[in-house]
Amino acid sequence: MAKKKEKTKKPAYKIHKIYKVEGDKIVDKNRTCPKCGQGVFMARHKDRWHCGKCGYTEFIKSE
Fold first, then answer.
1. Is 24 left (phi over 0), alpha (psi -120 to 50) or beta?
2. Given phi > 0 = left and psi -120 to 50 = alpha, else beta, which region is 39?
3. What is the pTM of this model?
4. Which segments in the chain show pLDDT lower than 70?
């Protein structure tokens, strides 16, 4: 009989990388996606902002 594959554990979601505390308020570090709405964050790349859920991309203008 074939051996069972062991499930690999995914690393815990690092919530401290998404939010920061300023005084009494909690502030988002990343931008939210305008298509997906509140709660879906966009990733910051070298030349663009990108949403991993819907694929929306905003390019950063270089000066």
1. alpha
2. left
3. 0.63
4. 1
Q: Structural domain boundaries of the chain?
A: 15-59
Q: CA-to-CA distance for 63 and 54, rounded, in angstroms? A: 28
For tokens 């502030």, name the residue. Answer: 27
- d(CA 40, CA 30) in angstroms, rounded, equals 10
Q: How far is CA 23 from CA 15, 17, 18, 27, in A?
A: 18, 17, 17, 10
The chain-wide mean pLDDT, for the chain, equals 87
